[in-house]
Design a protein that fits this description.
Elements: H1 10-30, H2 40-54, E1 58-59, E2 72-75, E3 78-80, E4 94-103, E5 106-115, H3 124-142, H4 150-163, E6 167-168, E7 174-176, E8 183-187, H5 195-201, E9 210-213, E10 216-218, E11 224-226, E12 233-235, E13 241-243, E14 246-250, E15 255-257
Antiparallel strand pairs: 1-4, 2-4, 3-12, 4-5, 6-10, 7-8, 9-14, 10-13, 11-12, 14-15
Helix pairs in contact: 1-2, 3-4
The structure holds 2-amino-4-trifluoromethylsulfanyl-butyric acid and cobalt (II) ion (CO) (2 copies).
One cobalt (II) ion (CO) binds near residues 100, 109, 111 and 245.
Length: about 270
């Protein structure tokens, strides 16, 4: 349904830039707190207070379709939408923190992986999965430019993940973003054979489109299950899952990563 894609004006893109930067800054701010023994509910509280009190912004997840917290925290075999809880982080855990802020009506959505207790605490498999997933995101960003299709994005992610014998979660995708948290188009991370989804993959990129790319890559099989809380998505086989997410805008020449952090060279 490429006709429903909302192209943003330069003024709207400037607001997306602000929202994107704020979301990135939350991930930068929280980094030193991610350590053995802290609970994900404590991380949620720190992010919530920073977004509300310092950034004067709104955490988009809070009460979104009933989601109870301000960030998503997905540990180890949790694929996405993990709910912050009183469970303590352990040495060797891998954690995704997904932050979405609303500022002046516009959304910025981004997530990154953290190694609890440092990178060397994680298993070699966890380190590889985390790195390959980030490479998937970078390769996808590289191919975003006017004239290319969402199919090209799906293709590079699929190729890279599969070359490392990892699987791609099909149950969740990236999304258009702007004044809505989620809008057209759907951004698939794999090449779907489903006719309707395949049509979406044929969407041609145009300047002013704003969307996320957020591959979820599994060490084992692609299948996921939703827990009884209605949110937490876990791998069916309990193997590890990793995810990284950026919000971007298509420009005349390529794209601009609106949620880029200081530690990144993209
Ligand atoms: N931030 C997630 C995404 O990337 C969506 C989270 S929905 C929530 O699309 F309700 F769980 F917060
Ligand atoms: Co998103
Ligand atoms: Co997100």
């Amino acid at each position: 349904m490429s006709n429903k894609i909302i192209l943003k004006t330069p003024e709207q893109i400037e607001k997306m830039r602000v929202a994107g930067r704020l979301a990135a800054e939350v991930l930068e701010m929280i980094e030193p707190y991610v350590a053995v023994g802290i609970t994900t509910a404590e991380l949620d509280k720190i992010c919530h207070d920073y977004i509300v009190d310092v950034q004067k912004a709104t955490p988009a997840p809070l009460n979104y379709k009933g989601f109870p917290k301000s960030i998503c925290t997905s540990v180890n075999h949790v694929v996405c939408h993990g709910i912050p809880s009183d469970k303590k982080l352990k040495k060797g855990d891998i954690l995704n923190i997904d932050v979405t802020v609303i500022k002046e009506g516009f959304h910025g959505d981004t997530s990154k992986m953290f190694f609890v207790g440092g990178k060397e605490s994680a298993s070699i498999m966890a380190q590889r999965l985390t790195e390959v997933t980030y490479e998937c995101l970078l390769k996808a960003i590289e191919i975003v430019k006017p004239g290319n299709m969402l199919l090209d994005v799906a293709n590079v992610i699929e190729k890279h993940a599969k070359s490392h014998n990892f699987s791609i979660v099909e149950a969740f995708c990236g999304h258009g973003i702007g004044q809505n948290f989620h809008e057209e188009p759907q951004v698939l991370h794999y090449v779907s054979k489903n006719p309707q989804e395949h049509k979406c993959l044929k969407t041609i990129l145009k300047p002013g489109m704003t969307f996320t790319i957020e591959p979820m890559i599994n060490a084992g099989k692609k299948q996921v299950t939703i827990l009884r809380d209605g949110w937490t998505a876990v791998t069916k086989d309990k193997n590890l899952s990793a995810q990284w997410e950026h919000t971007l805008v298509v420009t005349e020449l390529g794209c601009e990563v609106l949620t880029k952090r200081k530690d990144e060279v993209i």
